[in-house]
Amino acid sequence: MFEKIAKQPIEVVDITTPAMNSMLGRYFIAQTDTLSFGNKSDAWGGIINPRNSGVNLYFDIFTITNFSNYSFTGEIWLNAKPPKESKPASTVTPSNQAIFPPPRPKAIMEYANNITEPLKNGVNIFGRIVAPNSTLVSDSHKGSMIIGPGGSFSILLKSPGQQNITGTIVLTWWEEKIQ
After folding, report:
1. Whole-angstrom Cα distance, residue 80 to residue 63?
2. Residue 22, SS3?
3. Is residue 159 within 8 Å of residue 113, measured between CB atoms?
4. What is the pLDDT of residues 107-127, one digit of tens each?
5. Omega before residue 105 within 30° of 0, cis
6. Nearest CA to 37 among 45, 28, 46?
7. 3-class SS at 20?
8. Other CB atoms closer than 10 Å to residue 70's CB: what's the count?
9. DSSP code of 174?
10. Angstrom distances, CA of residue 144 to CA of 4, 141, 147
11. Is the dihedral of CA 96, 93, 63, 121 positive or negative?
């Protein structure tokens, strides 16, 4: 009278936080213009979470591209003040291109070329060597670095000496409203 029904396997889908935030229109990608440094000057790029943003910024991935024939060091900083001569990046976009109108981030990506003053405040949490003619890609931090309003995530490209260097920085993050 009753048939035994075979159990169907349950499909488990792992939606990582970056993918979920991309679907929701909260995941952003930004790139600096080409950065120039060398001969005792450095370059800088970073995301700044404005004091009045109302969001926490969850950092995910960075890349540093080296277009030169010389290695240099990229220093990763949390909450450093941007250099005085920094300007906003023009290449900022949500990763979900299916949403119209496209969402706009609260955070701002800025960059600066040929800076000679050291970064102020903040903490240099680690450094990476960037090989010649290559792109260094970080592991996904999956939001483990949380930048509150008034904070920042920065990369300082350190001059290796007299050589002129060019490169770019790409940063990815998502934003969530503070409850």
Report:
1. 19
2. helix
3. no
4. 999 999 999 998 999 999 999
5. no
6. 45
7. helix
8. 17
9. E
10. 47, 6, 10
11. negative
Continuous segment of H or E residues that includes residue 44: strand 42-48
| Residue written as token pair 């290695």 | 71
Place of tokens 């995910």: 60
pTM for the full model? 0.88
d(CA 57, CA 178): 10
Structure tokens at 79: 């909450």
Which position has the token pair 């490169």? 167
Neighbours of 131 (CB within 10 A): 11
Strands 134-137 and 55-66 turn out to be antiparallel
Tokens of 39: 């001969």
Domain boundaries of the chain, sorted by first residue: 31-177
Q: Token digits for 106?
A: 């609260």
Q: pLDDT (tens digit, 9 = 90+) per residue, 1-32?
A: 566 666 777 665 555 677 787 787 789 999 99
Could you tell me the CA-to-CA distances from 37 to 68, 113, 166 in Å, in that order?
Answer: 11, 6, 7
CB count within 10 Å of CB 90 equals 10
Q: Tokens representing 170?
A: 């790409």
For residue 3, what pLDDT is reported?
Answer: 63
- By CB atoms closer than 10 A (0-12, 13-18, 19+), residue 177 is exposed
5 vs 2, 8, 11, 34, CA distance in Å? 9, 9, 18, 62
What is the C-alpha separation between 128 and 115, in angstroms, rounded?
19
